[in-house]
């Protein structure tokens, strides 16, 4: 037999951002610490060894910060002009940096003066790095050349002049000590092998390349220019996917510690985080100004973003919340659970079954006993009215269905009417509540029409309700106008659509993800 | 199952209730039908246990409106009969019974006790040990004392000051004290005492019901009073303390009758929706006996659940009932609306209006609506959960259309892939909408599947009235008032339109199998049109006022039911030829609302070419008055054996002595019947399966003789079936009841025999008719056999 059916609270799909594991993870950072540098920050690099200091290259200095320090713990300032791309070696002991004047300097972390200086580039060197064999350095300069240097002898091993424009980015393979990659403004990415005299692979990016990144496995290459493109190196540089989520040039790329997420920073002030399996944006950060450099510490403990205005934005991860709070609540003892439950009825016992207790909300209890006025009072309690207005509206609807809404609304004092009217005024414009609340508003005005003018408070509320509804009507009119305009636009566009579709089919081989740019 | 109070047998083991022309005996413990008592040829209006013989029961029907039996007057019963010569006046008379307890009794000795009583059996009650009788009508209560021969009349004002309605609705008498309880139309119960004085009578009032008190009953000792009404709450009043009362709420629908078993352990309430509830004396719900629940208004139409082959239609308010045709039982009731139903007149509560199943029964779509000042619509999609074996709510869409939804259908593709599944709804807001499943790839999401709108189509802002997918799912036909539009279901391009002015399209359907290139439409101007989809031209049209158009899912046949001159006719045709295969003219005097083809479990072998279309599925109809009917080809015996327990029939079994005996008996019978005419003889020779089964089944697996006997007897009563339905409507109806083995009266299934029409027209009536004497003879045989059972 049927039991009482509680009031159904209609669930409305949550609009806006969906909360996923990713958003929770990437939201778990404290409020950022801002550090002002002297100029635009072109490179941030974390030391691969604890305590994970990081080197920030800005203007003519390279600052080394401790993880939680706000002041640099060390500064290399032996540059005449701007310094570029200070990068740690794998063991965290050496640091190499390029410079505007074309020389490359190698520093010991503990020392001050450069250990070595490599001269050979005729113009500014924007990219330098260590090969994974630790004894060689690669570099790329504005003289269109990319070179390889030997650290012990401080001499140039080989120089490749294959690019036809500035070489502005590069990276070395972590698996092979001979392979490095450079990206240039001539729209190409070239893969060099130190054992050969020329590049082994050229990938056409299509835009000036601002950043390149090789996956730890070495199989996938990410290049960033106007768009971020992922290439399969093992298939000879085939385009895997093109990510068009930024609306300005992407300046920096970075992988998280697990290699599951790819981060990209752009001049459009966003950092976007992609899943490396689906290449969809799972999260994004907003920053105040255009982003030039980006780094993520091991274990994703810190995100550091360097911007064009010289501000260094440091975000630390919140410490894991301890779960002590929930443990404090004492559970009932075991014997309270089993009390009387382990008794087996004997044959001559008369078994009286006790129905399971069902827990009902207060308004359901009142509705069950047909106390409509009290049920309405129950859902006008502040915590229900303010935080779960859908419950209030659902109960109002249920009362209306039972035909008792009018009597429930009637016979209320000044304070209660004003409270009701405040609720209606505030919620009547929400589309999901509108049909019910219009009925409620109608009834209230009907019932309390004779007493209008007796209370200033209630009169004020009535006026506010009128105002709210009038405003909403204006909005709707405006929206309809916009809709009409859009219809007219679409009508003119329909003829072009047919040709557009065909175009799409022709380049069906290249899989492109047309996602909303401003996600 | 209504028309009379249900009666418990002595010891409360069985429950007897009147159901149409029968009295049905149910087991209280197992709620199964134990026995069907036949004999009346019209509605049974009263059932009473004989007070002295514990095993006898009285039943009345036809013109006798109520029956009362008293332990004090052994040889007479009281009945209410209409007063001769006057309409709408009834009198209570006592009838002397003859000792011979035969089947029918012709009442000879009548003595009028009370005049001007109400026709309802609830309005008259006998007091303590039959000393007095109380009867109410309108605002008058009259009490007649048998011993003193005194008649006291009490009357109330029609309305009191507070606007209450004082009209009496029912009366009950205390079993041990001089106390009468009366129920009133405004929900009050009055307890009358001291009523043997004309002036100094007293009454006290109990008030809980907000509407009419529909029935009252005192408990065995008179310590408590039970009352029931529209609220569907059984109220138990404790007489000692006035205000104390217990409730048993939510019994489903209005309580029509309340009765109590003679030992007081069970109560029983009969409800308006064709259901009986058995309740323990401590007001605990115990059992329910239900057949096809009578909904207030069947809006969903007849739908067949592809999984269970059950008929699905509106049940309790807001519920969907799954009704098994084979066992005449409700399989289960699915709560769709999931709102508390308030039993109160004049309330607008949401009800189920449309139902559709996907091809495999995996998805169920329902539409519920509630219309007050503005319309509330909800489209719900239910997913069949294999684990719990029931439907689980998957998606709820509020306001899928701005106006009423007129039709809804799934794309019936047989592939198991989900992405081809599609739902189309048409609305009066001039659009049709296509709904598809969205798969949420996010593994953290609670449910991965949900439905959302894919396409909205419209045609010149005409109201969309019907929709239908072609068999392969590639085309969708949507009718917009006068026009049928055909859409490509992959690109949603409008392919072509058909129009047959004047008249709006009432229903459309695609042909199936070999006829899949045809589209059939029926207009409300009385035309049935068939369009060829390949040539986009009208193939043929016929002038026929079709109210229901129903394609058979398993064959290319289409059934059309027309309504002409206040009679329904059935036409079955194939779309590729304009000539119907089968015509059944005037098979029903009521308007047919819905029809459905129910697939058979096993295809049947049908000899007659005329009924070949019924080979794979059976056609059911629902009329305006919610009677369920079917078209049948088989003879009654066959049907019965099918519905009875499936006995193992093996040809190689040795002949049992019982079968020999019966066989001999049968032989004699058939020899005696030779002169009945050729057709009868012919029928006997084709060896009815009932008899065959009886003879070939070993005795130890046979059901009781009382069960088999009617089958056997019926197998001998062949001559009746040769009569057409028109000639002897009531008899055929009774017979069909037997055949269907129904448990409720509204399932009265009108059989249409194979021999019904055509032979009758060709051979003439005389050959089929039995002479009166022969018919009598057959009746005699039947009677004899019944008495033979009672010896057992």
Automatic annotation (TrEMBL), chain A:
It comes from the Eukaryota. Residues 342-489 form the U3 small nucleolar RNA-associated protein 15 C-terminal domain. Pfam families: UTP15_C, WD40. InterPro entries: U3_snoRNA-assocProt_15_C, WD40/YVTN_repeat-like_dom_sf, WD40_repeat_CS, WD40_repeat_dom_sf, WD40_rpt. One of its GO terms (biological process) is ribosomal small subunit biogenesis. One of its GO terms (cellular component) is small-subunit processome. WD repeats lie at residues 118-159, 243-284. It is found in: Nucleus, Nucleolus. Keywords: Nucleus, Repeat, rRNA processing, WD repeat. Ribosome biogenesis factor. Involved in nucleolar processing of pre-18S ribosomal RNA. Required for optimal pre-ribosomal RNA transcription by RNA polymerase I. Part of the small subunit (SSU) processome, first precursor of the small eukaryotic ribosomal subunit. During the assembly of the SSU processome in the nucleolus, many ribosome biogenesis factors, an RNA chaperone and ribosomal proteins associate with the nascent pre-rRNA and work in concert to generate RNA folding, modifications, rearrangements and cleavage as well as targeted degradation of pre-ribosomal RNA by the RNA exosome. This is U3 small nucleolar RNA-associated protein 15 homolog. The gene is UTP15.
UniProtKB/TrEMBL annotation, chain B:
This is WD repeat domain 75. One of its GO terms (molecular function) is RNA binding. Keywords: Nucleus, Repeat, Ribosome biogenesis, rRNA processing, Signal, Transcription, WD repeat. One of its GO terms (cellular component) is small-subunit processome. Residues 722-777 are annotated as: Disordered. InterPro entries: Beta-prop_WDR75_2nd (IPR057644), WD40/YVTN_repeat-like_dom_sf (IPR015943), WD40_repeat_dom_sf (IPR036322), WD40_rpt (IPR001680), WDR75 (IPR053826). It is found in: Nucleus, Nucleolus. The gene is WDR75. Residues 766-777 have a biased composition (Basic and acidic residues). GO terms for biological process: positive regulation of transcription by RNA polymerase I; rRNA processing. Residues 1-20 form the signal peptide. PANTHER family: WD REPEAT-CONTAINING PROTEIN 75 (PTHR44215:SF1). Residues 302-626 form the WD repeat-containing protein 75 second beta-propeller domain. It comes from the Eukaryota. The keyword Transcription applies.
């Amino acid at each position: 037999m049927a039991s009482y059916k509680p009031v159904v609270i209609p669930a409305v799909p949550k609009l806006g951002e969906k909360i996923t594991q990713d958003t929770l993870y990437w939201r778990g950072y404290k409020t950022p610490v801002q550090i002002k540098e002297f100029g635009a920050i072109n490179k941030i690099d974390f030391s691969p060894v604890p305590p994970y200091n990081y080197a920030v290259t800005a203007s003519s200095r390279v600052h080394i910060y401790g993880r939680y320090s706000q002041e640099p713990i060390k500064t290399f300032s032996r540059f005449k002009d701007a310094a570029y791309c200070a990068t740690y070696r794998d063991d965290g002991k050496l640091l190499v940096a390029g410079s505007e004047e074309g020389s490359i300097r190698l520093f010991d972390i503990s020392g001050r003066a450069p250990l070595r200086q490599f001269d050979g580039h005729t113009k500014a060197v924007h990219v330098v790095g260590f090969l994974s064999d630790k004894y060689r350095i690669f570099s790329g300069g504005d003289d269109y050349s990319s070179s390889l240097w030997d650290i012990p002898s401080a001499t140039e091993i080989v120089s490749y002049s294959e690019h036809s424009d500035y070489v502005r980015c590069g990276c070395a393979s972590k698996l092979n000590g001979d392979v490095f990659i450079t990206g240039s403004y001539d729209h190409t990415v070239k893969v060099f092998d130190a054992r050969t005299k020329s590049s082994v692979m050229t990938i056409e990016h299509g835009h000036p390349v601002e950043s390149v990144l090789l996956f730890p496995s070495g199989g996938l290459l990410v290049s960033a220019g106007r768009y971020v493109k992922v290439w399969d190196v093992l298939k000879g540089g085939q385009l895997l996917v093109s990510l068009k989520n930024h609306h300005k040039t992407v300046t920096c790329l970075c992988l998280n510690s697990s290699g599951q997420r790819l981060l990209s920073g752009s001049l459009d002030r966003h950092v976007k985080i992609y899943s490396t399996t689906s290449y969809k944006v799972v999260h994004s950060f907003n920053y105040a100004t255009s982003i030039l450099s980006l780094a993520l510490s091991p274990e994703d403990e810190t995100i550091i973003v360097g911007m064009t205005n010289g501000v260094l934005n440091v975000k630390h991860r919140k410490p894991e919340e301890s779960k002590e709070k929930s443990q404090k609540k004492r559970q009932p003892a075991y014997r309270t659970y089993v009390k009387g439950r382990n008794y087996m009825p004997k044959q001559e016992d008369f078994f009286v079954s006790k129905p399971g207790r069902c827990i009902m909300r207060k308004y359901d209890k009142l509705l069950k006993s047909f106390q409509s006025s009290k049920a309405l009072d129950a859902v006008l309690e502040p915590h229900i009215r303010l935080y779960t207005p859908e419950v209030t509206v659902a109960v109002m609807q249920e009362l209306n269905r039972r035909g008792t809404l009018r009597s429930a609304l009637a016979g209320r004092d000044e304070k209660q009417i004003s409270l009701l009217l405040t609720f209606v005024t505030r919620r009547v414009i929400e589309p999901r509540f509108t049909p019910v609340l219009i009925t409620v508003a109608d009834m209230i005005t009907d019932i309390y029409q004779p007493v209008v003018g007796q209370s200033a408070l209630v009169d004020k509320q009535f006026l506010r309700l009128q105002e709210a509804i009038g405003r909403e009507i204006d909005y709707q009119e405006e929206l309809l106008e916009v809709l009409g305009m859009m219809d007219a636009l679409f009508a003119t566009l329909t003829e072009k659509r047919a040709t557009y579709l065909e175009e799409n089919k022709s380049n069906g081989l290249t899989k492109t993800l047309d996602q909303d740019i401003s996600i | 199952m209504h028309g009379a109070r249900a009666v418990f047998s002595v010891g409360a083991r069985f429950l007897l209730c009147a159901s149409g022309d029968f009295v049905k005996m149910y087991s209280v413990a197992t709620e199964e039908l134990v026995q069907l008592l036949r004999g009346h040829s019209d509605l049974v209006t009263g059932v009473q246990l004989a007070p002295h013989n514990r095993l006898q029961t009285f039943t009345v029907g036809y013109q006798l409106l109520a029956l009362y039996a008293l332990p004090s007057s052994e040889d007479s019963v009281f009945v209410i009969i209409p007063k001769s010569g006057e309409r709408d006046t009834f009198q209570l008379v006592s009838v002397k019974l003859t000792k011979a307890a035969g089947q029918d009794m012709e009442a000879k000795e009548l003595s009028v006790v009370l005049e001007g009583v109400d026709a309802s059996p609830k309005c008259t009650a006998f007091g303590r040990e039959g000393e007095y009788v109380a009867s109410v009508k309108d605002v008058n209560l009259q009490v007649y004392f048998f011993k003193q021969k005194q008649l006291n009349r009490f009357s109330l004002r029609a309305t009191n000051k507070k606007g209450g309605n004082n009209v009496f609705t029912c009366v009950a008498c205390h079993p041990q004290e001089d106390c009468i309880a009366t129920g009133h139309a405004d929900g009050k119960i009055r307890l009358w005492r001291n009523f043997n004085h004309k002036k100094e009578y007293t009454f006290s009032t109990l008030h809980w019901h907000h509407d009419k008190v529909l029935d009252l009953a005192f408990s065995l000792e008179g310590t408590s009073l039970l009352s029931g009404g529209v609220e569907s709450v059984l109220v138990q009043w404790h007489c000692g303390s006035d205000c104390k009362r217990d409730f048993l709420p939510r019994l489903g629908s209005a309580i029509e009758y309340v009765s109590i078993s003679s030992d007081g352990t069970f109560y029983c309430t009969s409800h308006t929706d064709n259901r009986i509830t058995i309740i323990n004396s401590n007001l605990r719900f115990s059992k329910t006996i239900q057949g096809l629940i009578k909904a207030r208004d069947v809006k969903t139409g007849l739908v067949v659940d592809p999984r269970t082959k059950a008929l699905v239609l509106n049940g309790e308010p807001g519920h969907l009932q799954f009704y098994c045709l084979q066992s005449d039982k409700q399989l289960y009731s699915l709560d769709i609306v999931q709102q508390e139903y308030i039993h109160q007149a004049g309330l607008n509560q949401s009800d189920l209006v449309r139902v559709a199943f996907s091809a495999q029964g995996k998805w169920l779509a329902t539409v519920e609506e509630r219309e007050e000042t503005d319309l509330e619509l909800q489209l719900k999609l239910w997913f069949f959960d294999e684990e719990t074996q029931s439907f689980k709510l998957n998606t709820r869409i509020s306001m899928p259309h701005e106006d009423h939804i007129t039709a809804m259908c799934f794309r019936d593709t047989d592939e198991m892939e989900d992405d081809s599944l599609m739902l189309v709804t048409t609305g009066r807001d001039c659009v049709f909408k296509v709904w598809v499943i969205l798969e949420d790839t996010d593994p953290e999401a609670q449910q991965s599947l949900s439905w959302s709108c894919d396409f909205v189509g419209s045609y010149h802002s005409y109201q969309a009235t019907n929709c239908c997918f072609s068999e392969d799912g590639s085309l969708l036909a949507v009718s917009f008032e006068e026009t049928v539009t055909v859409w490509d279901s992959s690109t949603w391009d409008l392919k072509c339109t058909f129009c047959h002015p004047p008249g709006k399209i009432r229903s459309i359907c695609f042909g199936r199998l070999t006829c899949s290139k045809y589209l059939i439409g029926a207009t409300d101007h009385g035309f049935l049109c068939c369009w060829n989809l390949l040539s986009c031209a009208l193939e043929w049209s016929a002038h026929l006022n079709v109210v229901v158009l129903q394609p058979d899912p398993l064959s290319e046949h289409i059934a059309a039911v027309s309504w002409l001159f206040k009679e329904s006719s059935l036409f079955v045709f194939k779309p590729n030829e304009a000539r119907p295969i089968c015509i059944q003219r005037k098979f029903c005097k009521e308007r047919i609302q819905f029809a459905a083809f129910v697939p058979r479990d096993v295809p049947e072998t049908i000899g007659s070419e005329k009924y070949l279309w019924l080979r794979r599925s059976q056609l059911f109809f629902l009329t305006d008055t919610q009677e369920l009917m079917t078209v049948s080809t088989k003879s009654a015996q066959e049907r019965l054996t099918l519905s009875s327990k499936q006995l193992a029939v093996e040809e190689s079994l040795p002949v049992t002595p019982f079968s020999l005996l019966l066989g001999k008996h049968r032989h004699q019978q058939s020899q005696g019947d030779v002169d009945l005419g050729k057709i009868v003889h012919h029928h006997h020779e084709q060896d009815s399966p009932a008899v065959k089964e009886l003879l070939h089944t070993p005795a130890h697996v046979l059901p009781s003789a009382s069960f088999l006997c009617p089958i056997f007897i019926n197998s001998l009563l062949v001559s009746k079936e040769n009569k057409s339905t028109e000639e002897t409507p009531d008899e055929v109806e009774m017979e069909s009841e037997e055949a269907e083995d129904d448990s409720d009266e509204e399932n009265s299934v009108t059989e249409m025999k194979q021999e019904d029409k055509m032979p009758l027209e060709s051979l003439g009536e005389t050959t089929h008719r039995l002479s009166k004497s022969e018919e009598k003879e057959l009746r005699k045989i039947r009677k004899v056999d019944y008495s033979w059972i009672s010896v057992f």
